[in-house]
Amino acid sequence: MDKTAVLLEAAEILNSDLKIESLISNILKLTANYLNARAASIFLVDENSHKLNLFLKAEEREDFWESSLDFGKGIAGWVAENGEPVISPDAKADPRYHSSARGGIDFEVGPLICVPIKRGENVAGVLEALNPSGSPEFDRDDLEIIMALTAEVSIALENARLIEKLEKNSREKELLFEISKKINTFLRLDEVLDSILSSLAEVIQFDAAAIFLVDPETGEIKPEVEKSQNIEFAELMRRNFHQHVGEGLVGWAARTGQSVLVPDVSADERYIKLRQSTRSEMVVPIKNNGYVDGVLNIESDNFDNYNKEDLKLVEAFAGQAAVAIERAHLLDEILTKRRIEEELRIARRIHSTFLPSKQPRIAGFDIYGINSSYSEVGGDYYDYIPIVQGQYGIVISDGSGHGIPAALLMAAFRASLKAEIRNNYAIRHILYKVNNLLCESVESGSFVTAVYGVLDSTNSILTYSNAGHNPPIWIKGTGEVQELTVGGFALGVVENTEYTEKPVVLNCGDIIVFYTDGIAETRNVNKEEFGTDRVVEIIQDNQNSSASMIANSILNELKEFRGDAPQGDDYTIVIMKKS
Q1: CATH superfamily assigned to domain 339-578
Q2: How far apart are the C-alpha atoms of 104 and 93, rounded to whole Å?
Q3: CA distance linking residue 51 with residue 195, whole number of Å
Q4: 3-164: what fold?
């Protein structure tokens, strides 16, 4: 058969369907047809287990026969290890022959041809054709044909894996978004956590999984939700799991706040055997504000079943569990208090946890924020959020209304924002998703205005988007004044709102003031408005002062201007000065 014709036909057939199962079927059919073989098999390298996964198809069978083989074992294992082809007139007479990989064939193997599938310099798999004993031998022409075929097979497999990875990543993000919505819909914590495990099962194979909660007073770790094919697993966990912080892999993660990937639990001295069939495990802490609230545990009956990408994905789901636990704790505290005084006390505590406990220390910048609430519970929020080395999220926002409703609205906004920031979306995507979550989960008429930006301190660039908020004022060292207006509508008003973002380059002496409407709209006894012009004047008068002195000068001038008039709204200011 002409090699060029083989390449053209094979390329067309192999690229017609790049679903892995369909592609493997087409590879085996082409191999058997081109080499007049009774059976064909393909061994693919499993990067997790470092084994060869076998897919074999004989002409008598419609389905695959699947198995696995160690590197170096059998003829295929030798080819995978050495990267060289093998033509054998009688495979069973070859000392490298291993019969365990031939369970799907009902004839005695005779002639065999086996070649490596290479991806660059690396072996990605092995392709072989087999015939019964007594059949004509495979020759050099057959070798040329199968080698030509493996070149197309390698490309098709690479494309199929890329498509599979992209689809998996897309599904992961979709599931995380769905969980974010459920967090703001479900009231019962166990329902949300069970949903998290169910969603995780769609993208990661596991034989058992559980989410544990840590009792902060006793240090006891208790299983909250479990998932397994074995219906007795939940009862096993609740009856026999008795661990405290520091005990076992789960307790280690709870104590250290670190994730752990264990390819072989029997080789890890921290492991405490509970489930007899477990071979490998991932354990991830569920953290809120630096404290471990729980642990997410994933177990497999296979050795070395998970990699670092799997661990990173489980950490993203643990982040969603952290938001759910935080929200459940807050709601439970509020709903269990009967008297309004208790509700106000809890709401004040909630709002105080929103605000940063200290000012950030960012090289090249002087940043200072301050908040003064109008009522016992404020509706303003600002924060500094470390993202990666040299990048910090800066947010200021204002929820509609006052008191407890405004604080709860801001709790939903803050939880949604932090959950989406963990997904590493662009700013415009973060606001798009947070907007939709608020539209679905808050009462009609409630909304949040906000400015969210990411400061790249290394390059002195602030990339921001303004969601219907008072435009931050940018006072340059040259004296020029600009407002940061690029963005979109307020959050929670119109579904599927698109947001834009814009970078600004900051030079030495530049100052940006973020503020809420309570600053500019404050009125004195004569009904005169404080306005943004006064804010600009105060900053220009204090341009050489520190960020904290500028912020406090604005508040002092504001209170003096207001005089005996009552404070009508919350005051929040964040000053960012390029040193």
Answers
A1: PPM-type phosphatase domain (3.60.40.10)
A2: 20
A3: 33
A4: Beta-Lactamase (3.30.450)
CA 423 to chain centre: 5
Half-sphere exposure of 314 (CA within 13 A, CB side): 28
Residue whose pair of structure tokens reads 């008795």 in the numeric block: 242
Domain ranges of the chain: 3-164, 186-328, 339-578
The side-by-side arrangement of strands in the sheet containing 473-475 is 365-372, 571-578, 511-515, 473-475, 481-483
- As a whole number of angstroms, the distance between CA 219 and CA 255 comes to 9
225-274 pLDDT tens trace: 888 877 677 777 777 788 899 999 999 999 999 999 999 999 999 998 88
Cβ proximity of 299 and 206 under 8 Å: yes
Read off the tokens for 205: 């194979």
Angle at 463 between CA 178 and CA 547, to 5 degrees: 115
How far from chain centre, in Å, is Cα 180?
A: 12
Task: Answer for the pair 490, 418: CB distance below 8 angstroms, yes or no.
Answer: no
Average of per-residue pLDDT values in the chain: 84
User: What is the tens place of the pLDDT at every residue in 114-163?
Assistant: 999 988 778 888 999 999 888 899 988 888 888 888 888 888 888 877 77
Taking the C-alpha atoms of residue 131 and residue 35, their distance in angstroms, rounded to an integer, is 10
Beta carbons within 8 Å of 93's beta carbon, 6+ residues apart: none
Phi and psi at 178, nearest 5°, equal: -65, -40
Nearest-CA neighbor of 115 among 150, 74, 154?
150
